[in-house]
Amino acid sequence: MAGEYFLSSDVQLPVKLLVLNAHGSSPEMTASEPPLSYTDFLSEKTGMAACDMYVSCQLHTYGRQYGEGRTCNAPGSRLRWNEWVSFRGKYASLSPDAFLTLAVCGSDGPRASRVVGTARLALFDESQQLRTGVVKLRLRLSGGEAAEGEPAAEELEEMAWLDAVSSRHERVLAQPDPELDWLNRPTYAFLEEKQQDVERRLERHFISVQLPEFEYPVIFHERRCQLPPSRHVVATPRGQSGRQGENASATLHDAPIVLLADSEQYRDNPALLKHHKLARSLLSAGFAKELKPDAEERRRLAALVESPPTQRLREEERELMWKFRYSLTSEKNALTKFLKCVDWGDTREVQNARQLLQQWVPVDVPDLLELLGTAFGHTAPWVREFAVAALRERATDGEVLSYLLPLVQAVQYERNAPTSPEASPLAALLIHRAVANPELANFLHWYLYVERRDQRHGEHFGRVHDAFLDRLRVSQPGTFEALQQQEEMVSALSLAAQQLKASSESRPKRIQRLRAMIEQPGGVLSGLCSLQRPLMMPLNPTIRVVGTVAEKATVFKSAMSPVGLSFQLALSGSQSAAHASLGAHTPHSAPQYSIIFKGGDDLRQDQLVIQMLMLMDKLLREQGLDLKLTPYRVLATSPGEGLVERVPDCLPLAQVLQENRNDIRRYLQQLHPAPHAPYGIEPEVLETFVKSCAGYCVAMYVLGVGDRHLDNLMLRSNGALFHIDFGYILGRDPKPFPPPMKLCKEMVEAMGGADSILYDRFRLSCCEAFNILRASSNLILNLLLLMVDANVKDIKGEHDVLKVTEKFRLELSDEQAARYFQELINDSVSALFPQITETIHRWAQYWRS
């Protein structure tokens, strides 16, 4: 019946479609002798057989993917699938802009796939009616060849006209009228001739799908939320009181809670926006210069200036900052907050902000780092140029080295990345500094080497890396050759690790095989046995080695078969001092440097944690607090491989306790006996143990490191405790109810118990370190914010960095923060559940061995 239809909100059926076939035409098909079929043509064009091609479909609604994608199987020898694809989403839950994406993919190797072409289908047409029946979609081929075959605008218009007329004529032929047969025949002949002409001249690619038919048209409709029934709303007449009023209150109290979905709750109020716009326009530059904040406004401004970079400013706070912007130019910490208040769509505000930027007092490096992150990606290019120019003037090479890992990640936000790396301000700065500094060059090379394999930004990172290597080859050929030598070493280690992992031999035989790879001529690692020129170590470029000690090579007990190697050092004065800090050799042994090569592990998260530990150690030392941290070095050499520095003379705390009757002091007494000292141990060793416990308690708490057990806590022979394996950070932990920090009772007993002087020193060191790091919270947070797009497993967005902000408790004074941290220590020592999980972990380790 005319005028009848369905509402989409009433259709509680899953969205589905029938994928039919891929078809098209090309001048190459008709020019070939004999003419090629479309299947043969597409196979030849893409280099993939038709039987290896499949279709991947994805539903999108409300601007995001809905559920998982669906896949059609390979079509056989022809590009015909004829397969129904059903999605989780229902028609009732679709938005007016809902659409389907189809990707024709093909196998490109045993484990790889490649997209051949993509198509898009809007589920509702211009009149908001659901599409039905057979739909022919234009298939856009991927790659450069597709771009060359893209038709011109007039050709597109001709093709669209032909498709529309053909589909209209097909509908007429479906219900033929004998009286119009005289007109249909010549029309059909004309269209057929036109079709052949287009196929001879233009290249067209299509994929046809069929959408379900309904009895009546389906019109888009979004169901409004229902108000609560009137029976739940009870009114008391004016002036009425007593029992009736009490009954009314009881009825309201017993009424069920009704949740109302307000679809506009997160939208800006246009009237309020207009008001703010007019109010800001009244604060012209001349008038605003004369404004001075009163006492309350100064208090609010001071709180905003000191707020962490992760805090979002409310509209009234933005208005306050803008109103008194001229009064803030003498506040170096206020610049980033002011720039967040600028309306970057308003030309006058942007010009005013640029003028004010020239008047601002010099800004500290932590705030400059914030200007390089995603929060300022939408601003004018001169903001980034200002930050990079200030970094060039104020940041030393040592600071750049400390921040290099996050700075490399910030390169991906360069606005003019498609042009050239030299035109990207931050990339140009890093290249300039690295060319003049071999240590910076070493780490910049490996960070870019890994990032150029990123699927999203790898192309840009590759251009930056190539530009850096070109400059280095010309300016510093020695450093360039050293980096090439490192790549050769890493490639050899990767190949050796793969061969050992694939072997089904026992661990002793794999160790023998590894040593044979080094000693035997022609072995995979024979080139490392004795080096013709010293090798600059990627983990520590201040260290150079001259060969590998074959008898020290080992394969660790793990599914990934990590390889351990020891290198003979080529010592100079500075290298000897740097290496001696780890206690790598004794006077009775040749100096060596040991590493672990891990294949099959993504070390980028461990690398970040170690970088943050090194930064925290530096911040603490600058304030005169040395907590004896051991930030061993970690370097990712690819997304699935990397190098780890081996710390000599250390054991897992679990092994120390097992072999010494759960007594850490007994272990230290054996190594450093002092009969007349307290507890029979050299005081310096106990002091080192206490300080290192305090340092790692604070650092692990701030970074939210999880999965702490006695096998990833290590104890060095000099009494220094340190942590390894950072697979869980920022509050993530595979075990339930983790304590705030790993502080077991055996560690407290080693200090003499909870009433001892050493334990008091431990708590004071923790509180002092916590407050020092809180004072540098902006630096730590800004560096972590630069890592949100770095493919680090546990940092997926700004919300993860907010967890670190919460840990700092920046709303507390230093005295309050010290009391708060002492409470955390008490909670961690008395936590019962970690003791249970530790016992379970020991059982698991026993049965695993």
TrEMBL record:
**Record-annotated C2 PI3K-type domain positions:** 11-186
**E.C. number:** 2.7.1.137
Q: InterPro entries, per this entry?
A: ARM-type_fold (IPR016024), C2_domain_sf (IPR035892), Kinase-like_dom_sf (IPR011009), PI3-kinase_type3/VPS34_cat (IPR057756), PI3/4_kinase (IPR015433), PI3/4_kinase_cat_dom (IPR000403), PI3/4_kinase_cat_sf (IPR036940), PI3/4_kinase_CS (IPR018936)
UniProt-recorded Gene Ontology molecular function terms: 1-phosphatidylinositol-3-kinase activity; ATP binding
What are the record keywords, sorted?
Answer: ATP-binding, Kinase, Nucleotide-binding, Transferase
A Pfam family per the record: PI3Ka
Q: What class of enzyme is it?
A: transferase
Origin, by domain of life?
Eukaryota
What's a single GO CC term here?
phosphatidylinositol 3-kinase complex, class III, type II
Q: Name its GO BP terms in alphabetical order.
A: autophagosome assembly; endocytosis; phosphatidylinositol-mediated signaling
Query: What sequence ranges are listed for the domain PI3K/PI4K catalytic?
Result: 549-833
- The PIK helical domain is annotated at 287-471
Q: Which family does it belong to?
A: Belongs to the PI3/PI4-kinase family.
Per its record, how is this protein called by name? phosphatidylinositol 3-kinase
